[in-house]
């Protein structure tokens, strides 16, 4: 889940594009600089976000080093790729290289269907396996059933991400609210805003944010064994008990107390983000993928971030993956582009624009906020605090989770009913994966 997540709204339908190759076919047997043809590249990062800026520079470098190659870049919407990836990658319209969501239900599912290229040899020969820490490798490797954490490499992340609380410093100051350090302090802060008729927490029930808040609340009562059971099937998961019950119960309680607007059930992540940018929302709980955009677009007030108060575990992981479709006609060009995005030069651009790189030269990071962002991520990874995302365990779970979040917001189902739906879909999905 960004994952999930899109910070751009692209309404264009997926169209058929003819791939015209000049001279030699893919250049797979020629050295850098001598290839001809086309690299068809898709990603869904906003042009003014950290990854978008870094990858724009990577395209420039790629063109310089591959003067005979045309880069055919298309910016897609996250939801567009999320919903249509299997169909696209099974066709001859697949790109050569694509950003794709990581996890069992997404990259894992596609790898198990044979739709993604095994990148293990490239990861070893190009040193990607050395550049990525073990916790970041978890989402890059999948076994034959598509379960992350072991097996072959099917994707390469070149950034990290994690969920945190963004807050409007001006509104905190206006209403005399201090940055909370515990969950009790968080609820007290929200009570202060509600008493002044201000909805403290921006939300989007029609996409990933509601599910991520539910998960953060559950993680406040969880340990690593729960994460391993939930995400990696190392043990059973009880949807009638804590920590998941606590997450759903507390989420609904926050709606009833006015911390979250009931009208947010139909809002999308973009609506939540733009409301924060406009200075209308004291806080949102969301991911580091917003950071670069906020840094670029928020001009009228000061803002900051803090980790979800009291949590030792937080939703987060490596960033989304570069994947090479099995149908790619230009695999070596795709590998070359991935390699460029791993260079310190590109990583540092990401860092200086609010991204969380895996291999930046921190001495070249100039903004104290950006250094704090990266330092917080480093602290989480060093304490084994990445808990991945709530929709990852099984295919199709994202939609079930979104429906559950909407139900908790609009009150159409109570927490026990939502948990029953989530548990049923989870158990069925896990069984299907285990049965192959």
Automatic annotation (TrEMBL):
InterPro entries: Bact_solute-bd_prot1, SBP. Pfam families: SBP_bac_1. It comes from the Bacteria. Keywords: Signal. The keyword Signal applies. Residues 1-27 form the signal peptide. Transmembrane segments: none annotated. This is Extracellular solute-binding protein.
């Amino acid at each position: 889940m960004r994952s999930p997540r899109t910070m751009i709204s692209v309404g264009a339908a997926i169209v058929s594009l003819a791939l015209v190759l000049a001279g030699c076919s893919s250049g797979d047997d020629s050295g850098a600089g001598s290839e001809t043809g086309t690299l068809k590249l898709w990603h869904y990062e906003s042009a003014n976000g950290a990854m978008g800026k870094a990858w724009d520079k990577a395209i420039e470098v790629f063109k310089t080093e591959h003067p005979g190659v045309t880069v055919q870049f298309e910016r897609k919407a996250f939801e567009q790729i999320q919903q249509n990836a299997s169909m696209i990658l099974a066709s001859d319209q697949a790109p050569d290289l694509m950003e794709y969501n990581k996890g069992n239900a997404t990259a894992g599912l596609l790898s198990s269907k044979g739709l993604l290229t095994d990148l293990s040899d490239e990861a070893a020969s190009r040193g990607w396996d050395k550049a990525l820490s073990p916790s970041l490798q978890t989402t890059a490797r999948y076994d034959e059933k598509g379960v992350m954490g072991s097996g072959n490499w099917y994707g390469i992340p070149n950034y990290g991400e994690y969920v945190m609380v963004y807050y409007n410093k001006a509104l905190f100051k206006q209403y005399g609210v201090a940055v909370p350090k515990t969950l009790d302090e968080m609820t007290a802060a929200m009570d202060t805003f509600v008493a002044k008729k201000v909805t403290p927490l921006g939300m989007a029930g029609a996409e990933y944010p509601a599910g991520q808040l539910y998960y953060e609340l559950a993680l406040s009562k969880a340990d690593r064994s729960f994460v391993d059971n939930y995400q990696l099937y190392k043990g059973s998961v009880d949807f009638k008990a804590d920590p998941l019950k606590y997450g759903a119960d507390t989420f609904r309680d926050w709606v009833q107390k006015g911390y979250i607007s009931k009208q947010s059930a139909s809002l999308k992540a973009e609506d939540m983000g733009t409301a924060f940018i406009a200075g209308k929302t004291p806080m949102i709980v969301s991911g580091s993928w917003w950071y670069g955009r906020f840094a670029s677009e928020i001009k009228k007030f000061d803002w900051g971030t803090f980790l979800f108060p009291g949590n030792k575990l937080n939703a987060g992981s490596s960033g989304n993956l570069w994947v090479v479709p099995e149908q790619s006609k230009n695999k070596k060009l795709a590998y070359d582009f991935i390699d460029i995005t791993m260079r310190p030069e590109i990583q540092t651009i990401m860092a200086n624009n609010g991204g969380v790189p895996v291999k930046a030269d921190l001495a070249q990071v100039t903004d104290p906020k950006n250094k704090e962002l990266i330092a917080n991520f480093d602290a989480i990874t060093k304490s084994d605090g990445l808990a991945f995302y709530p929709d990852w365990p099984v295919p199709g779970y994202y939609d079930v989770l979104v429906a559950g979040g909407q139900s908790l917001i609009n009150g159409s189902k109570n927490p026990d009913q939502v948990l029953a739906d989530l548990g049923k879909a989870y158990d069925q999905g896990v069984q299907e994966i285990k049965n192959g």
